[in-house]
Amino acid sequence: MAGHFTAKSAEDLPDRAKTLSMSGLAFMQGMLTGDLPRPPIAAALNYSLHSVEEGRVAFRGTPTFDSANPQGAVHGGWYGTILDSCMACAVMTMVPKGSVYTTLEYKINITRAIPLGMQVEAIGTTQHTGRSTGVAVGEVRGVNDGKLYATGSTTCIIMKID
After folding, report:
1. pLDDT digits (tens, 9 = 90+) for 27-71
2. CATH no. for residue 40?
3. Phi-psi region of 139 (alpha: psi -120 to 50; beta: other; left: phi over 0)
4. Is the pLDDT of residue 13 over 90?
5. What are 154's strand-pairing partners?
6. What is the domain extent for residue 143?
7. Which neighbouring-strand residues pair with 105?
8. Looking at the domain assignment, is residue 99 inside a domain?
9. Which of 62, 86, 68, 89 is nearest to 139 (CA)?
10. What pLDDT was estimated at residue 12?
């Protein structure tokens, strides 16, 4: 099943040499096909990679009771994690072979509460990718209702590894 091979330990993750031998787009496509594992955080928070193209990545997920805050609503960290994933991975699709990236900063705006058990799609789209930074935006929408639940923006740092 695409995107559902989950790393169970550090040994399951690709090593540095393999990661650097692939472009970010090829790496993300490998996760989509299941040739590379999805990160453990995706399994823990119940979301999966849904689509990948250059400059655009989508994840789909369903927050469960395990993602609730003390009032029983979806915790803001769930929104932040799925948005960070889609936005940063959109930047990753633009990173060349031999380089790595990481989130430098991100911001989210929650526009309405996601009901527990409702499937949403988080779409990240790059706005700029240069030699040292990448900028992307994201949004979370209900799969069935199309409503906007959250938006976000990120800046990632891109580093060439020699």
Report:
1. 999 999 988 988 889 999 999 999 999 999 999 999 999 999 999
2. 3.10.129.10
3. beta
4. no
5. 106, 136
6. 14-160
7. 155
8. yes
9. 86
10. 74
Residue 1: inside a domain: no
In a domain, 23, yes or no: yes
Give one DSSP letter per residue of 79-129, joined into a string: HHHHHHHHHHHHHHTTPPTTEEEEEEEEEEEE-SPPPTT--EEEEEEEEEE
Tokens matching residue 104: 């430098």
Tokens matching residue 34 = 């299941």
Which tokens sit at 16?
């540095």
DSSP-based three-state secondary structure for 18: helix
CA distance 9 to 70: 30
| Cβ within 8 Å of residue 95, ≥6 positions away | 23, 24, 101, 129, 134, 158
Average the pLDDT over 132-139 and give the result.
98
- Specify the pTM: 0.93
Strand duo 47-53 + 148-160: pairing: unpaired
